Amino acid sequence: VAIDEALHDVRNKSLLPVPIHLKDSHYKGASQLGHGEGYQYAHAGEEGWVDQDYLGVEKEYYRPVERGYEATIRKRLDVFKQRRKKTGTDEDTRS
After folding, report:
1. Which of 34, 56, 65, 95 has the smallest count of CB within 10 Å of its CB?
2. How far is C-alpha 63 from the geometric centre of its chain's CA atoms?
3. Same domain, 6 and 50
4. Contact (CB, 8 A) for 39 and 22
5. Can you tell me the distance from the alpha carbon of 43 to that of 52, in angstroms, rounded to the nearest whole number?
6. How many CB atoms lie within 10 A of CB 94?
7. How much is the pLDDT for 64?
8. Cα 46 to chain centroid, rounded
9. How confident is the model at residue 86 (pLDDT cuts 50, 70, 90)?
10. What gap in Å lies between CA 24 and CA 40, rounded to an integer?
11. End-to-end Cα distance, the chain
12. Could you read off the pLDDT of 17-65 as tens digits, one per residue?
């Protein structure tokens, strides 16, 4: 289960650094550190989606199953994966 995997990583100090484009850019000196550079506002993208990495590493916690509403979510995630293939960032492990 996703939460168990995430908790395991936290407990074992397998913590991930925050990608630079997601770091706070609203303070003096942030731009000198590169904070916020390359950030894309998802709501401005097609259907509220942009091809942007939010985790920084190849790691996947959530893997929806083929039943109930998760089947609908899985189909939507598959659409995003297809879009990534078209943009040349075919990484199936983003979440």
Report:
1. 65
2. 13
3. yes
4. yes
5. 12
6. 19
7. 95
8. 17
9. confident
10. 14
11. 14
12. 899 999 999 999 999 999 999 999 999 987 888 888 888 778 889 999 9
Structure tokens belonging to residue 44 = 């401005």
Helix residue ranges, H only, the chain: 2-11, 68-87
Same domain, 38 and 13: yes
What does the block give as tokens for 75? 């189909």
- Please give the biggest Cα pair distance in the chain: 49
> In terms of residues, how long is the chain?
95
| pTM reported for the whole predicted model | 0.64
| Structure token pair of residue 90 | 């075919």
Kindly indicate the confidence band of residue 89, based on its pLDDT and cuts at 50, 70 and 90: low
Counting the structural domains of the chain, the total is 2
Identify the CA nearest to 54 among candidates 64, 43, 40, 65. Answer: 40
Domain holding 38, by residue range, is: 1-60
